[in-house]
Amino acid sequence: MVDIRLNATIxxxxxxxDAKPHxxxxxxxxxxxxxxxxxxxxxxxxxxxxxVFVDGMLVKSCLMPVAKAQGATVDTIESLxxxxxxxxxxxxxxxxGASQCGYCIPGMVMAxxxxxxxxxxxxxxxxxxxxxxxxxxxxxxxxxxxxxxLARDVQNGRLPATALLETDTADGDVIGKSVRRIDAPSKVSxxxxxxxxxxxxxxxxxxxxxxxxxxxxxxxxxTSAALAMEGVESVITSADVxxxxxxxxxxxxxxxxxxxxxRYVGEAVAAVAAEDALTAKRAVAAIKVVYEQLTPVFDxxxxxxxxxxxxxxxxxxxxxxxxxxxxxxxxxxxxESDLVIEENYSTQAIEHAYLExxxxxxxxxxxxxxxxxxxxxxxxxxxxxxxxxxxKPISKVRFVMSPVGGGxxxxxxxxxxxxxxxxxxxxxxxxxxxxTREESIISTAKRHPSRTNLRMGVMHDGxxxxxxxxMVCDGGAYGLSTEGVMRxxxxxxxxxxxxxxxxxxxxxIYTNNTPSGAFRxxxxxxxxxxxxxxxxxxxxxLGLDPFxxxxxxxxRDGATTHTKQTLGSVSLMRALEAAEQASGWEAGAPAVRxxxxxxxxxxxxxxxxxxxxxxxxxxxxEAAE
Amino acid sequence: xxxxDEYLTPTSLAEAFAAMEKNRGRYRVVAGxxxxxxxxxxxxxxxxxxxxxxDVTKIPELNERQxxxxxVRIGAATPIQRFLDDAALGRAMPAMPRCAVWFADDQIxxxxxxxxxxxxxxxxADATPCLEAHDxxxxxxxAQNGKIVKRSMPLRDFITGPGKTQLAEGELVxxxxxxxxxxxxxxxxxxxHRRSLVISVVCLAVMVKLDRDGRVIExxxxxxxxxxxxxxxLREIEDLLRGKKLxxxxxxxxxxxPLDLVQSRSRQEYRRDVVRGFLVRGLxxxxxxxxxxxxxxxxxxxxxxx
Lengths: 625, 306
Known about the structure:
The structure holds two protein chains of two kinds.
Chain A: E1 4-10, E2 13-19, H1 25-32, E3 51-54, E4 57-60, E5 73-75, H2 88-96, H3 105-118, H4 124-130, H5 142-155, H6 184-188, E6 204-210, E7 216-222, H7 224-228, E8 232-237, E9 261-262, E10 268-274, H8 277-286, E11 288-293, H9 300-303, E12 319-327, H10 330-335, E13 339-347, E14 359-364, E15 370-374, H11 379-389, E16 397-401, H12 417-427, E17 431-434, H13 437-443, E18 450-458, E19 464-476, H14 482-491, E20 501-510, H15 524-542, H16 546-553, H17 572-582
Parallel strand pairs in A: 1-5, 6-17, 15-16, 19-20
Antiparallel strand pairs in A: 1-2, 3-4, 3-5, 6-10, 7-9, 7-11, 8-10, 12-20, 13-18, 14-15, 14-17, 18-19
Helix pairs in contact in A: 2-5, 14-15, 15-16
Chain B: E1 2-8, H1 13-22, E2 27-30, H2 36-39, E3 48-55, E4 65-67, E5 71-75, H3 82-85, H4 87-92, H5 96-102, H6 108-111, H7 114-120, H8 127-133, E6 137-144, E7 147-154, H9 155-158, E8 159-161, E9 164-165, E10 171-179, E11 185-191, E12 202-210, E13 217-225, E14 232-233, H10 235-241, H11 248-255, H12 268-289, H13 299-305
Parallel strand pairs in B: 1-3, 2-3
Antiparallel strand pairs in B: 4-5, 5-10, 6-7, 6-10, 8-9, 11-12, 12-13, 13-14
Helix pairs in contact in B: 11-12
């Protein structure tokens, strides 16, 4: 390799140093200069958390080879608050509550800075356009736009600088008040260190070999060529697990790395720790695995059939969890109903897409405590599981929760922390693993895809007499949170409605797909999508207003749920009223609405999407200029 | 991950060709790198090791811009952002600024080059229909026996299919020569799954020149992409419109011409609906920007296609 001698001005300081020719500007800034304020979220120019200024132009530093910065002036998020004093925009982000997980925020602040430099008077639409290259997964963007508008108005003198100051709330008086996040300054300045930003002296870099097959027996793994490579410290496989292998939120069915067989494409098979990530990558490519293909099963309904491929020997019927709920006599309820309506519903797998890909750092400390630092959403449970896996007393295992750059349930699983712990133990050096976006998508949990059959019996006046639901979910290759998701799905399946006769069955099924796991709403979405859609369909059939049919059946204070819980107070009626008012709802059955509806076209209705606000001033007769 | 042993940044054509000759069979030419870096990732090309990357963006010839009365010459390394910054360029190519705001996002278009967009030859490339509407000619250069040899060909001959061009081994695209269309009003219509960073499902470049009163279409240029393997000029529609009085009925007649434009592999019906709407909307917008008489098109028509 021919290093590049890079001469540039970075954050106001002259820098002259050698850089590897394949580095992206982002790698050079983060790894070589330790300027970790700007992050890597996707590595493909999609998310914008790496946005920096190069000669005054905002660019995505993950798409720029470092050689392009030769002789350039580069400014990162660290340049905006050099002396510790936040910029007007950073203060506005703090004031407006525009940072949540914070991982997108350095890029957002940079893009907002660029937007207001390009047009200090940009209106909200133009701000949206100019921030179009940056993705936030938490905030829904509104608070970010609020922050940019606030900064704009302060900069232009339309608002006093005091508008950026703390809101005064009396001591303890916080309910219903806008309270500032105390961690926001660390996020808007880029100073908060996520796991992928952390370094330790002597740290090794970890890369993972993943299965290309959905279902295959591992005949042999030959790591000798990888181990022989210069710079490679250690290569581990399932055989290196000293204790009882297996993790999972409910059932410990997932090995740290594939043991005997692989069950999904992307499953970890081996891991390498090396002096740098590129060496580790090359060592991973040098590991030879011989697989014997097994018949895979990808459809949960097929997996439930007799004779289907078995994913886990302990569950020959491929059922991870079945949750049944029985109340009253459902068939009798249907018999006395005026109308019985049946429909099928399905939902798809969804990726959490938190902006921070999984990352972690592990080391064995001076007292032999195996320490794992990662954005885990469940460190206490991870600690107990890891102690068993590495055969250490709990006092010798420590988990540190690093800032979570978005989780949404997707970081509940101990999917990589075990590999880090094993490598730290084997090498007695700190080790760090940072997932790529592609790795994050291929190997971590998704929301359970579902198929639901739903039957409801109703009277002409709208009262529901019976509900029968059967939902089959694709749990994928490992259990993860499936059991809990199935339970919550079943418990909430009949909604907040008083129904005398209920039969609910939810099934989480093993397949050779990517594992499904926890994801916001934890199963409630899948069943309630069916139930609520069904109520709308029934309302249409009965000529009832959709709000009305819900009020007719609503649980009231003191109601007993389908799982025999007594509810002291039920807020459903108030929630319905608030939703009805806020949506500008026009009463009536769904069938009577449509072309004549009057709730569209108001100021609060989002107009169709277009681009080009920046041309607005000269929109007519441009040719005549 | 894109891995190279050497990253070369030649500052002249001669230097570039020397580097290409020296690394024959083991180099790749790059410009903005906004497509190359995402290409070298898992799920696409994976980890790619290329011994020499040759970056052509510092070659002066590839950064030239000359705006004349009849022709415009644009260097291949011109970033898409220049069509928003350079007013003279924007006037001579009136659909290009509109195209530029839809191109990737504010940051990527600061890096991405016109030449890169053409050489990649994506069926959904945003800049190519604009260039096609300008009767663009591609300028090519190569070194033969130590001398730089140039040739040129129309863009429509240069792009032969998805990802396929007539670029020869050892050859570089140096620039484009286009019709200067100052006085035309321009529009660019695009739809994808969202506004920024999105691949066109349909994109359409429209330019219209009206008479002094803003009532008669003196000339017009239209080209469409995203719906077939290569961009397509819409000469049938141009011929229909040229010399006619600007009316809503005429624009709808143009949009309804049975041209069977959509040859995509997917979502054909949706795309046909979009193409029809885009033709009318693009023509309305371009006409308005060309100074259409306020009463030439009805408010209802503009509202229907706005």
